[in-house]
Amino acid sequence: MRSRFAVVALVAAVLLALPCAAQEGLRVVAGSGNPGFADGQGAAAQFHKPIRLAPFGPDAVLVSDIYNHALRVVTKAGVVRTLAGAPDRKGHQDGPAAEARFASPHGVAVAADGRIAVAEAEGHVVRLLTKDAKAAGGYVVSTLAGQPGQKGMQDGPAAQALFNSPHATLWTGDGAVVTTDIGNGRLRRVNAGQVETIAGAEPDTFVYPMDIAPAAGGAILIADAGSHRIHVLSRAGKLTTLASDAPLSTPHGVAAGPDGTVYVADMKSHRVLAVDARGHVTAVAGTGAAGARPEQLNRPAAVLVHAGWLWIADLDNHRISALPLE
C-alpha cells in the first residue's frame, strides 16, 4: 500500500513540476459554472457535464451535454443553443430532432456533408443526425448501430450489433464511423450497415479507450484513460504508443493541432497538456488543482483544435473554456 501511495505522490509531483505556458488567454466561453440547462450567452447559459466536442461550422463547436441528454452548439461569441434533446426527454426515440430522445450522449462527430454521429453511452448505441429542412429541429435522428438499452459485444449487421458504453466517434475518409467501446475495450467501425472491431480484439490492448481523434496520414489518436497512455492507430492498422517525457494522469480527451502537437485533457491533474513531436510535455491550461477561477479547470474531459482556439470541455465546472492558439 505504501508503495502505491508513493507512486501516486511521485506522479502528482511530476505533473505539478511540468513547465506551463502562459495562460493569460485562457477564457470561459460559456457556462455559469453551476449545473443546469439554459440556452443564452456566456454565463447565462448552463450545462450539466459537457463531455465531448466537435467542429460545427467555421466559428462554433458541437457539445454533448450528458446529464441534460442533449446536443448543444457554442459559438466563439459564447452563444449557446440546443440542437436536440433535453433533460426531461431522456430515453430512446428516433425521428425529428425536436422530438428525439437521447440517453447520456457522449462522443460527437460531424461529417463533411453535415451528418452527426453520436456515441450514446447509456443507450449502448450509435445515433445519426441527418439534415432535413422539413423536420422539426432541422435534423432527423436515427439509430446507426446497436440495440437500444442492450449492452454486449457483437459484430455483424448494424441492427444486431451490440456495444457496451460507446464513448467517442469520428468519421473516416471513406464515410465510416469509428467509436470507442469502453466496456468492451475496443475500437469498432460502422460502415455500410456492418460493425467490425478494428482494434482491441487482443486481450489487454486497451483498458478504457475514452476518446479518439484524427491525426496526420489517416491515423487515429486514442486516449486510454485506464492505462494513462495515448495510442496511435495507423491507417494500416499498426498500434503504437505516443512517446512522452512525463506521465499522464487519466487522459480523457485528445486532439491534434495543425502542427502535429497532440493536446490531452488530463482529467486527474486538472490540466490540458501539449505533447510535441519529440515527446516533450508542457501544461498549457489549468493550474494542477481543481478550481472554478477562469484560469482553473475541474476534470477537463475533452479538447478540440478549431477556429484558431483550443476548446476545452470543463466537465465539473459545467462550462466550455478556450485558449486562443493564434
Folded structure, characterized:
The chain has 326 residues and is mostly beta strands. It has one helix at 2-16; strands at 27-30, 40-41, 50-55, 60-65, 70-75, 79-85, 95-96, 105-110, 116-120, 125-131, 139-145, 156-157, 166-171, 177-181, 186-191, 194-199, 209-214, 220-224, 229-233, 239-241, 251-256, 262-266, 271-275, 281-285, 300-306, 309-314, 319-324. It has a 5-stranded antiparallel β-sheet with strand order 2-6-5-4-3, with no helix packed on it. A hairpin with a 4-residue loop joins strand 18 (220-224) and strand 19. The chain starts with a helix and ends with a strand. Mean pLDDT is 93; it is low at 1-15.
Short description:
5% of the residues lie in helices and 44% in strands.
From the spread of the alpha carbons, the general shape counts as: globular
Low-confidence stretches: 1-15
The DSSP helix count reads: 1
How far do the termini sit from each other?
Answer: 46 Å
| Rg (C-alpha, Å) | 19 Å
Estimated share of beta-strand residues: 35-45%
Structural class: mainly beta
Q: Which sheet architecture does the biggest sheet show? A: 5 strands, antiparallel
What is the H-and-E element order? HEEEEEEEEEEEEEEEEEEEEEEEEEEE
How many DSSP-defined strands? Answer: 27
Could you tell me the mean pLDDT? 93
Helix content: under 10%
Strand arrangement within the widest β-sheet reads 2-6-5-4-3
Oligomer: single chain
